[in-house]
Amino acid sequence: MNAVRASFDRFAGWVTGAKHAGYSLSALRVLYGVAIVSFLFTSLADRHYLWGVASKWVDPEANRRAWFPLFELVFTKDSAFVFDLAYGVLIVLGLLFLVGWQTRFVTPVLLVFWVGLATNSTVLTNGGDTIIRITLLFLVFADLSRHWSVDAWLTKRRGRALRPILRGRFAIPAWLANAANNTAVLLCAYQIMLVYVNSGIYKLMGPEWREGTAFYYSLVLDVFRPFPALSDLAWQVGPFVWVATFLSVWVQLLFPVLILWRPTRILALGFTILMHLGIGLFLGLWPFSLAMIALDLLFVRDRSWVAVGRWAAHAGGVLRQLRPERQRTERSVTTSAGSPS
After folding, report:
1. Which of 103, 98, 48 is nearest to 75 (CA)?
2. DSSP state of 300
3. Do the Cβ atoms of 4 and 274 come closer than 8 Å?
4. DSSP structure class, residue 159
5. Where is the HTTM-like domain (predicted)?
6. Tell me: the pLDDT tens digits for 169-185?
7. For residues 41 and 95, is the Cβ–Cβ distance under 8 A?
8. Cα separation of 138 and 141, whole Å?
9. ∠ CA(61), CA(73), CA(33), 5° rounding?
10. pTM beyond 0.85
11. SS3 state of residue 66
């Protein structure tokens, strides 16, 4: 009983003591912002056919889904001008989210507009927009701009933190803000584990995955071949196809177990990140790939981010020191070659 109480106290202390995953949440914000903005810009020319006034062909299917009325009011199909105005607002929100400006206010509004766009069509999905919609709800309560953001730059420039939303007697206590941030991290981590485990289970149901040939079929589908020559080159390497198929099943299925121990966590995260980069490259599903990579990064501790930053700074310092030495050597050689003998 004492052990259970001690474990609960440690967990409660972890949740309420300080905000965790600051670097990972900031990286997630950047990747989500890139995924959202790139998705909107690449769909700009066809926006009316996909979601706007010319998309009523999808209404019978879209109306079968029960959406909260607020979301259905954001994007209209009756006026092209009003739709374009909302679409432009969504792009601006995505850019503000990407650079990390006032994320406390931008994130909930972005959630409403992002879900609102999805209510106009239910057939345009690749998994990435869905996972972003789900986790954005959790991220409303997270601190997404502690690093690599305009908010962080303003905080450093002013020498003080941003003003809290509520002040005085209505101020949110620090422990509650910490708990909200860390709960969002846990819910996002649970969501990515749920996706991986379910994906692994469904893969096991298919004979192609059990036989090690599923990766081949993914590479030869005409609708998912942005670089046909590269896809053809990849599937002709038999051992690569079999290993990629095998690892895709078992790393996803065992992901919750693999992340418990640091060595296996590094291997699991390395494989899943490479897997999603491959999905983006070979299948062209970059919004999905970026969203999944962003969630994978939540399992990277802040101290690991700091260590990588120190290593990068050290490497940059070494390169800066070598550059003047190289320039001096080149000038010396040039002077020697140009001097009379």
Report:
1. 48
2. S
3. no
4. T
5. 17-304
6. 778 888 999 999 999 99
7. no
8. 6
9. 85
10. yes
11. coil
